[in-house]
């Protein structure tokens, strides 16, 4: 295989090649350091380093190897490709539940995202992750059809301590749910402050979307009602 695909295959076909390239992208390194960082044998290191030198991706100074500008360009591009394909692997099975009809959704938006799935041993994992993000935010803007206990507790803590402001669009079902919890009296009091602003939607809210400072999350539900964020 020749050309660009051949070069991609050259790196992808050997975990040692990609690992050595990634380690050199972090900075210059000795041959011994490369072996320790990647687990490559002496013979493998010799083959890979010779191949990199032929491509002018690396240069040797004294006992250290470092990437050339061309090698750094390749390293960045290959790492980006790996990240995209890792994201694609995570999105398989979730993509059909993404809000692609609601938004002009671009997979690059979630290229560096963390995807948290509901699991049998931890069904609340997505809600706990959302609560963790909200707990660390100074400002949360939320569109939601559900306000589970972890998220409600995170908002309550932040509003009570004065470190958090929430603007939320919720459904009537959320209002009824909160009214039936121990949070109801506090929720009513918080509405009279400048820390909580709530709008009740007259129509269904199809997705859960949260903007927390510079972090964004959204939730999707599968056919069995299991959530992912």
Structural account:
- The strands form two sheets. This protein has a six-stranded mixed sheet. A three-stranded antiparallel sheet has the order 1-3-2.
- With 229 residues, the protein is an alpha+beta fold.
- The chain is 46% helix and 19% strand.
- The protein is built from nine helices and nine strands.
Protein traits:
229 residues, six-stranded mixed sheet, three-stranded antiparallel sheet, alpha+beta
Largest sheet: 6 strands, mixed
Helix content: 40-55%
Mean pLDDT level? 86
User: How many angstroms does the end-to-end distance come to?
Assistant: 40 Å
Shape: elongated
Structure annotation, total helices: 9
Q: Strand tally, please?
A: 9
Multimeric state: single chain
Listing every helix as H and every strand as E from the N terminus to the C terminus, the arrangement reads HHEHHEEHHEHEHHEEEE
Poorly predicted regions are 225-229
Rg, Cα atoms, Å: 24 Å
Portion in strands: 15-25%
Tell me the structural class. alpha+beta
**Widest sheet, order of strands:** 6-5-4-7-8-9
Layout of helices and strands:
Elements: H1 3-12, H2 15-26, E1 29-30, H3 31-38, H4 42-54, E2 58-61, E3 64-67, H5 69-91, H6 125-135, E4 139-144, H7 149-161, E5 165-171, H8 172-179, H9 184-190, E6 196-201, E7 208-212, E8 215-221, E9 227-228
Parallel strand pairs: 4-5, 5-6
Antiparallel strand pairs: 1-3, 2-3, 4-7, 7-8, 8-9
Helix pairs in contact: 2-5, 6-7
């Amino acid at each position: 295989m020749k050309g660009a695909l051949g070069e991609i295959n050259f790196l992808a076909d050997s975990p040692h090649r990609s690992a050595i390239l990634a380690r050199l992208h972090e900075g210059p390194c000795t041959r011994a350091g490369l072996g320790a960082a990647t687990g490559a044998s002496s013979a493998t290191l010799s083959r890979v380093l010779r191949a990199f030198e032929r491509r002018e991706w690396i240069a040797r100074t004294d006992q250290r190897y470092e990437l050339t500008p061309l090698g750094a360009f390749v390293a960045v591009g290959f790492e980006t490709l790996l990240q995209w394909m890792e994201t694609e692997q995570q999105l398989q099975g979730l993509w059909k539940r993404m809000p692609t009809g609601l938004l002009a959704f671009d997979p690059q938006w979630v290229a560096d995202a963390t995807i948290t799935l509901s699991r049998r041993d931890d069904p609340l994992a997505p809600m706990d992750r959302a609560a963790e993000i909200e707990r660390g935010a100074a400002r949360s803007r939320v569109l939601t059809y559900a306000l589970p206990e972890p998220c409600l507790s995170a908002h309550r803590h932040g509003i009570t301590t004065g470190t958090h402001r929430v603007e939320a669009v919720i459904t009537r079902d959320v209002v009824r749910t909160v009214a039936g919890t121990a949070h109801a009296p506090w929720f009513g009091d918080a509405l009279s402050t400048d820390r909580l602003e709530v709008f009740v939607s007259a129509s269904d809210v199809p997705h859960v979307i949260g903007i927390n400072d510079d972090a964004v999350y959204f939730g999707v539900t599968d056919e069995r009602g299991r959530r992912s964020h």
